[in-house]
Amino acid sequence: MNLRMYLAEQNLKVKDFSKLVGCNENYLSRISHNRILPSKRLAKEIERVTEGKVKIAHTLKKSEKCQECESAFTAQDF
Prior knowledge:
Oligomer: single chain
Mean pLDDT: 81
Distance between the termini: 18 Å
Shape: globular
Number of helices: 6
Order of helices and strands: HHHHHH
Largest sheet: none
Radius of gyration: 12 Å
Structural class: mainly alpha
Helix content: 55-70%
């Protein structure tokens, strides 16, 4: 499950979830819309807070909108 689906399923707003994982609301919104990739620390925190429903592999999946991320991150980096 991706982050956006999880938030909808749990009826959570990005603002509220960003407080749970300890990051900026705008940053988390960009992650949930696949515009940027989360840091390794944040990806692990998202997985922990969602009790594994949002897997790190899903949050680190390369975004079609973020071509520069393709060369910077791979699943093996995490």
